[in-house]
Every structure is written in C-alpha cells, then in structure tokens.
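Sample pair:
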Amino acid sequence: MIYLGIAIMIYNVWQYIHFARRIRRRGDWEAEGRILIIPIFLLVLFLLGYIAVALSGKADLIVSAILFGGSIFVAVMDHLIERIADRIRENERLEARITAAEEANAAKTYFLSNMSHDIRTPLNAIIGYTAIAKTVPAGEQAAYLTKIENAGNQMLTLVNEVLEMSRIESGKMELEPANADLVSVVTQAGDLIRSQMEAKQIRFQVRTDIRDRWVVCDANRVSRIIMNILGNAQKFTPEGGSVTLTAEETGTDGTSASYSISIRDSGIGMSPEFVKNIFKPFERERTSTVSRTQGTGLGMSICKSFIDMMHGTIDVKTAPGEGSEFTVSLTFPLGEEQETAADRTADPARTANCGGRLLLAEDNEINTEIAKMLLSQAGYCVDAVENGQKAVEKLAAEGPGVYDAVLMDIQMPVMDGYTAAGQIRRLADPALAGIPIIAMTANAFREDELTAEAAGMQGHIAKPLDQEKMLKTIAAVLGK
C-alpha cells in the first residue's frame, strides 16, 4: 500500500505541475504565482513522507506530519478554487455587459439612421423652400417662409429631445415644482396643438373635471407630457379622426390630490409587441405609416422618465386599427390660488414695444443680425459688440443712462459672458454696475439659467430666438 501511495503521489505532483502551467498561460495570475508553488512543495513533502515511512517504519509521526501538510494543501486548493470561481463570475458579468452594450449600440445605430433621415427631411425643406422663395414675387414668399419656419421648429424639436434624453440618462434632470393652475396647464397644452388638429380636420376636444386646480408641480414637464402624447395622437390619427384630452380629479385627502389625464385617439393603434417597448429610448414601430412620420423614438421615453420622477404611472390601451388611449395618473400637493394669466391684461409683445436702447454682446454675425432685426421690429435700438471685453469697455465709455440693458452671449472669444457680467457688476459707478444683464445663449438648460443667475444676470433667453419669448423676458427684466 505504501508503494502504491508513493506512485499516486508522484502522479499527483506531475499533474499539478501541468495544472499550474495551464493556469498561468490562460490569464494574469501574478497574485497567485507564489500560492501555486505551495501545493507543489507540499506534494513533494508528502512523497518524501511516504518514502520515509517505507524506509524507517515510524508511521505514526510521519503520517501526522502528512495529515498536517494535507490540511494546508486543502486550504490552498480551496483558495485557488475560489479565485477561479471569482474569475468565472467576473467573465459572466463582462459577457452580460457586452451583450447589453451590443443591444444598446444596435438601438442607437437604428436611432442614428432615423435621425439622419429626420434631420435631412426638414433641412431639405429649408434649403428647397429658400431656393424657391428667392425666385417668386415678394407677395408669394410668405407661404414659403411659413414652411421654412415649421421645418426649423421640427429640427429644434429633434435636437431638444436628443439633448434632453442625454441629460436624463446622465442623472442631471431635476423637477422644478412650483404653484401652478393645473386646469390652465391642460387647456393651454390643448390650445397649442389645436391648429395642427384642425389642419388635418381632426375632431379635437378638451374636457376638465378638476375641483382642486391649484397644485405644486413642475408645470412645464406636465405640459410636455401632455403635448408629447397629443403630438403622437395628431401624427398617427388620419384626417377626419378624433382626439380627446380628458383631465379629472380622482381623489383628495385635503393636503394633496390625485389626477387622471387621458388622451384617446382613433388613429392607427399599435401592435402588442411594440407596446412592450414603447417606453424604451430610440424605439419606433416599423410600419409604413410610422416610417413616413418624423420622430426620434425618444418622446415616450422622456415622458415616462418625467412621470417616474413625479412618482406617477402611465397606462396604454391600444390595438392595430383601433386607436390608442394613454392614461397618466399623478398626485400633487395642493397649492395656493393665485391670479391667473387671464386676469392680467398686459400683452408682453405690446408692452415690450415701447422703445429702449440695448447693448448686444454676440460674436456670431448671423445671430447678431437676427437679434437686431427682431428687436428693431419691437421698437428697440440695438448696438452690437463681438465679445464680452468690448461690452464692458463700451458700457464704461458710454456711461450710465445710455443703455437700458445688456444682452450677453455666453461663449465668446477674448472674454466670455459670465466673466463680462462679473466685471460689469464690479464697475465703480453704481448705476453702470447695476444695469440689467440678460443671457442670450444656446446654453438652454435649467442649470445654464442658474449659472447665469449666479453670474449676476437677471434673465435668460435661449437660442434659437423665439421673438415672443424674447420680448416677454426683456419686458419682465425692465419692468415694462
């Protein structure tokens, strides 16, 4: 038996040496290099122990030593097996991440293909209608200019959705709750899309049954949710169809209230397979009707993110050819009743059209020309400089009382808008240092507004310029 044990130990030593070599060849095992030597050393000792037993006959002492060494051998092998199991689990996790990344890349590839198509479509309209407008009499240009404007707005929507989804995925999106009239939020969203419904001869109804209309919510995001679903209903409902927007209060406990907002259409409906993925980014159903309709496949994903942030729910009932019904359920704290927009008689555009002198800091010539023309139409006189440093110098040279406000771009050569605003606020003359400064920039997110405010600016106007919003902001800052 002893000689058989010797033979087995020799075989084990040989097998383990080959095992250790294979392990080293197949991965980075530097940390385990010294540990792999220990079992070889112990196996050699076991072999010598068997030989000693065979030669001396003192089995008790030598067998005890062999058992002690065997315990160490088992512990070392247990550690190695655990390390191998860890490597296997790590490889499985890596494979899962690779699979997820490949799926995400496939979705984004499809998205980029759609984006290429959806951006080129309005670009084609802008370029084509511009070329046509140059060749027709002045009296016929208005129709083409309207189409160019619509195409530009379509492109802006595409860009905004992509940027917004990026912010949501990076965790930078935050709600901005404030006191709001929920009835006005719902009805205004309906009013914004009503003309598009009428253009397709779609019967559009808005119904509200809300007792507690004043709530604390992010009114802009609630409106975005409604507008996005209504926009889809308008796109996928044929001429002569119907769309109904219903908002009702479903319950209250005295401090908060629950609301149900549903949008039902008689459009093309959706397949059950697509409904399962409707809230995933970049998803669009593959049908001939949908392929002819512009969209990034991000709108419903953005809506779902907003609703989740508000701790609400969204349900979908639909079938191909039978239309769709989306129901959004939200709960908001009750707010305080305030004066509504209908009670105020001032028209922002008319109020702004009272004259005034503005200093514009803008490095892009096209942006400068557009801003000056829009402001001139509203009765403002505008002087322009191409960077922040020249804005500070011109303001200081002209002295107080010459300009009513400064419109400041942010990203400019020589001196950016934030630095320029800080230098203006540090001017020695209090009248100059306190002049109203309004950011006019393509940095259009909420954090950009807060950064502008922190830099000493009283307002924020996002590019592309919307004349009505721009005049409203200027009027509010100037107190007109």
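Confidence is low (pLDDT under 50) at residues 287-293, 341-354.
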